[in-house]
Each structure stands twice: as C-alpha cells, then as structure tokens.
Design goal:
322 residues; alpha/beta; Rossmann fold; 2 domains; 11 helices; 38% helix
C-alpha cells in the first residue's frame, strides 16, 4: 500500500509529492512549523492528508513542550480552503494525549476511506470508463483514497473498469500522482489533458465522473481543485452522473453555501512555468485560484463513509451526517 504519511514517534515522515513520479523520497518533520511548511509548499496535499499531517504537527510540538497555541496558529495559516485542516486542529485542541489523538485521526481516515470505497463502488457499473480529476487516492489521504479509492475498490471487485485521469493544471496532480498510483497498482488508466474531457464526453467515451472535495458547504456546494466546476457543467450537458467522494471531515456545517468558502490563491510561478522551465513572458499578470466551487445542483450524489447522498441539499446532508 502507498504510505504517504509515516509516524515515527519523535518525527513525521511525508512522501514528497513534488518529486513524484520521478523519485519516491520522504522528508522528515520534527516541529509544527516544519509540517506547516510541508503543507504550504505542497509536499503533502489532499484535504484528508493535510488534516492528518496537521494533527501530527501539533502532536510534535506538544511532545517537545513547545507553545501549543503557536503551533495551532502556524498550522492553521498553512492553507485556507481544505476544512479538514481546521477540523483536525479543533480535535487536537482538547486532546489529553495529542499523539494518541493524531493516530486516531489517521486510522479513522483510513477506515473512512475504505467505507467510502465500498459505498461508491456500487455506483460504478462493470466496464465503466470513469473520468477523475486531480489526485484523490492514497497520496491525498491516509491511504486508499476517496474518489480514486472508490475506483480502487471497484477494480478490486474485478469490475472491468478503466480510469481517465485529467492532468489537472497547473500543478499536474492527475498526470504526476493519479497516473502514478494507477500504474503502481495495475489499474487501467489513460491520461488526458484537461481540455479533452468535453470532446471525449461528446463521443460517448466517458460513462461517469467522480471527484474529491476540499470543503462541502451545508447545502452541498463543493470546493475542489480548480477545473472541477467545468467538468460538472460538461457532465450535465452530456447527461453523465457527476459524483463527489469525501469523508465527513470535509463537510462544513458552519457555512450555508459555497459563496462563503475561501478560495486560496497560489503563487504565480505555478502558472508561468514548471520545475524551473518558464513558458510565459516576464511581466505578464497571472491569476492562480487553486479551487473552484461546484453548485450542489450539478452534483448527482456525494459519497461519504456513512453512505450516499443523492441530489444533495441541506436537509439530506443534515440527515446523513448527523
């Protein structure tokens, strides 16, 4: 199993996702500040994984008798959109034994991911050609994954499915990470550029779409990697099911709809080039919102560890999530 997060008692080891698929290297964090840097700089990414890493960051400073309040503030400031980060820190605030609590968060996430996989696999017909976006697999979680975890479970059940992975500009999480996970496990996968999705839908070469989430508002509006909203609109145009897979920790009951979700703006250099190669002219203005919001009415269903919420809205979400 791909192990993105490793706890060693006195340190946290994170697979450096910036180097994949070329190199598989772990970096070591011994303080909350180092974990916050790893989150901010995309060493670790994916909403559930960010939450797990932040929990261990807090546990590290607690074990070393460092300022807990400062640890919480430092970790909370690392990235603004993924609610799992704040959910995990809220749990850690009142933990009597931070290390035990962080391990519980990690293990609960893994168990939840496997439950999401079981529920979601029922939505994937045998032989389905499934489009996914960004990376929602083991690398984005404590293991197994959310949306990609659904496809992993469906594949394990011997369904003759295949994955179409959008490359996911500008950071290429689909091309680098989702494709890598599928190759590692022998899951049939075809890589496409983001702007090929509509063409393939129009030709009947995609059967359904499943994506992850970084924050889900009370009414079901969902923030996910920039470009997700476009896929949802295309799926509706072509009458394809569009599913979201996410754990309960991704639901934010405190915000009524997607308009209240803070959208992170990332550095301009992520758009003007990649890994030291620049393709845009100097002096050009750049926008780089890392996420967009898909309205609930474009979502066929949301899969969480408790089950499936079809035609998600405030009442149905409240009933299932409690």
């Amino acid at each position: 199993m791909i192990e993105p997060i490793r706890w060693r008692g006195d340190r946290l080891e994170l697979i450096d996702q910036r180097l994949l698929p070329d190199q598989t290297i772990y970096i070591t964090c011994r303080t909350a500040a180092q974990v916050a840097d790893a989150i901010r700089n995309m060493v670790v990414r994916g909403a559930p994984a960010i939450g797990c890493a932040a929990a261990f960051g807090f546990a590290l400073d607690s074990k070393n008798n460092l300022d807990r309040k400062k640890a919480l503030e430092t970790l909370a400031a690392s990235r603004p959109t993924a609610v799992n980060l704040f959910w995990a820190l809220e749990r850690m605030k009142s933990a009597k034994d931070p290390e035990t609590e962080a391990l519980a968060i990690l293990n609960q996430d893994l168990a939840g991911n496997r439950a999401i996989g079981r529920h979601g696999a029922a939505l994937v017909p045998a032989g389905a050609r499934v489009l996914t976006y960004c990376n929602t697999g083991a690398l984005a979680t404590s293991g197994h994954g959310t949306a990609l975890g659904v496809l992993r479970t469906a594949f394990e059940k011997h369904k003759d499915i295949s994955v179409l992975a959008c490359e996911t500009r500008p950071y290429l999480q689909g091309a680098r990470l989702t494709a890598w996970e599928c190759v590692q496990e022998g899951i049939p996968c075809t890589l496409i550029t983001d702007n090929m999705a509509g063409h393939l839908m129009s030709r009947g070469e995609i059967d359904l779409v499943i994506v992850g989430a970084d924050r889900i508002a009370a009414n079901g509006d969902t923030a996910n990697k920039i470009g997700t909203y476009t896929l949802a609109v295309l799926a509706q145009r072509h009458r394809l099911p569009f599913y979201v897979a996410a754990p309960l920790s991704t639901f934010d009951k405190e915000i009524p709809d997607g308009s209240a979700i803070v959208i992170e703006e990332r550095p301009a250099q992520e758009v003007t080039g990649y890994r030291g190669v620049r393709w845009a002219p100097e002096g050009i203005a750049v926008r780089n919102p890392a996420f967009d919001v898909t309205p609930a009415e474009l979502i066929t269903g949301i899969v969480c560890e408790k089950g499936i919420i079809l035609q998600p809205g405030s009442e149905r979400i409240a009933v299932l999530t409690g």
